[in-house]
Amino acid sequence: MHFPKNVRVPTLLCVLIAALLAALPTWANGNGVTVYLGPLPNVTNWGPESAKGEAYVNIGEGLVKLGVTGMKPLTGERYQAWLATPNLAEMVPLFTFDVDDTGAAYVEKTDLDLTVAEYRYFVITVEPDPDPDPAPDARRALAGVLPNTQVVAPGSPSGPTPIPGATPPASLPETGAPIADRYVQGGSALGALIVAGAVISIWLMLFHRRERRGNGKEGGA
Fold first, then answer.
1. d(CA 14, CA 2)
2. Which of 52, 96, 115, 133 is least buried, going by the fewest C-beta atoms within 10 A?
3. How far does the chain reach from its first CA to its final CA, in angstroms?
4. Is pLDDT at 173 greater than 70 in this prediction?
5. From CA 58, how far away is CA 34, in angstroms rounded?
6. Band of the pLDDT at 133, cuts 50, 70, 90?
7. Cis status, amide bond into 162, omega within 30 of 0
8. Parallel, antiparallel or unpaired: strands 105-109 and 63-69
9. CB neighbourhood size of 86 (10 A)
């Protein structure tokens, strides 16, 4: 790998550090996950068995994307998406939506004010429209298990207790960075940036020194 002789180490270092800085906000925002939706034993209890969907959730960015197919079109009612904690102990409303005549829909919501919690399920319920009761209806059409960084044995006091029959995956990436954790992730990214900058600086100085030695030998010859 060769660089022009008029390119100096500080210039290259600044360019590389700028590239790392550009990536910093991405690191700090947390990781989103894809949740596959369908009939889930002991969770869903309503609607066609052939219905399915896919949701993308990024807690840190307040972003949710949802696509569904095969759902039953409703009259005087709407579907509502929720994030739920273990055992459905707490369900946080996301948004309501309708499906077309084929039972399909796609919804994308940004800047959602998501409560920081240990979410375990993505659930879609059927709600009356209008709906005077903010609580979720008992009719659950679709559901999916959100991946966690670490899943412990069911019933363990240090981790979630899955609903009977709804077995969570063994080990998958975390659902995303809670808002309060952005600073922690930002600090980790900054530390990685400093280390990367130091390594790049040392490498460039060694490269520059070797190049000068090579030029000296050529001049002596």
1. 18
2. 133
3. 23
4. no
5. 9
6. very high
7. no
8. antiparallel
9. 19
The string of pLDDT tens digits covering residues 21-63 is 554 443 334 578 999 999 999 999 999 999 999 999 998 899 9
Extents of the domains making up the chain: 9-28+182-220, 33-176
Residues contacting residue 43 through CB under 8 Å, at least 6 positions apart: 88, 121, 123, 140, 143, 163, 166
Q: What is the pTM of this model?
A: 0.58
By CB atoms closer than 10 A (0-12, 13-18, 19+), residue 140 is buried
Nearest by Cα to 29 from 60, 65, 64: 60
Angstrom distance (rounded) from CA 141 to CA 129: 16
Helix-then-strand count for the chain, H and E: 2, 8
Burial class of residue 81 (count of CB atoms within 10 Å of its CB; 0-12, 13-18, 19+): buried
91-131 confidence digits (pLDDT tens): 999 999 999 999 999 999 999 998 778 899 999 999 999 99
E-strand spans in 4-154?
33-37, 52-58, 63-69, 77-84, 91-97, 105-109, 121-128, 140-145
Buried b or exposed e, range 148-174, using 16+ CB within 10 angstroms: beebeeeeeeebbebbeebebeeeeeb
Instruction: For residue 84, report the phi and psi dihedrals to the nearest 5 degrees.
Output: -125, 145
> Looking at the DSSP assignment, which residues form a beta bridge with residue 56?
34, 65
